[in-house]
Design a protein that fits this description.
Shape: globular
Order of helices and strands: EHEHEEEEHEHEEEHE
CATH class: Alpha Beta
GO biological process, one term: proteolysis
CATH topology: Cytidine Deaminase, domain 2
GO molecular function, one term: metallopeptidase activity
Number of helices: 5
Largest sheet: 9 strands, mixed
CATH architecture: 3-Layer(aba) Sandwich
Structural class: alpha/beta
Distance between the termini: 25 Å
Number of domains: 1
Radius of gyration: 16 Å
Protein name: JAB domain-containing protein
Bound molecules: zinc ion
Pfam families: Prok-JAB
Strand content: 25-35%
Helix content: 25-40%
CATH superfamily: Cytidine Deaminase, domain 2
Keywords: Hydrolase, Metal-binding, Metalloprotease, Protease, Zinc
Amino acid sequence: MSICKCQRLDLVVIRKIFLYNYATYMEPIGLMHIKTVYIPQEFIDAVYLEFKDTGLKGFERLALFAGQKKGIEFFVNYLLYPKQQLVKGPDGLSFHVDGDELERIGDWLYQNNCCLVGQIHSHPTGAYHSEADDTLALITTFGGLSIVVPDFGNSDHNLKGSAFYRLLPETGWTKLYPNQITSLIKITD
Ligand SMILES: [Zn+2]
């Protein structure tokens, strides 16, 4: 797993320490109560560069957003690239993260007192949640997000043409409407 930290690391660390106490005693479990997710612009930019680069080699790619909850808000402080096997098979492109890596991610999240809020991955063409995306998503917490970026990130910018899904108890991975996305996702400078 490689980790890209925000350049304003000091600020993030301070916020993290504050949230540690808050989160330990007061935060609700899960992500269903989260109304706004703040993602730093530099993480979005980094993801697009990574997706384009991997796309040139003909592969999809997966990244994870991790951070802390504060009330109904979630602050993404870490961008994680899990160790993943990139596959070009007869059924198309895919990526696989094995059990050891999932465990390693879980340990890392625990040690850094944060949790995952969502995953983001690239597609060679259209942005949609495939059957495999539904069943094999790394995010398994209700209220969690999955973002699919089309055309290896080449035709899209700042998630404008990306598809957003949220894992809901009744309907599983559920596509979000543009107005839901606008109120839920805030890209920060
Ligand atoms: Zn997919």
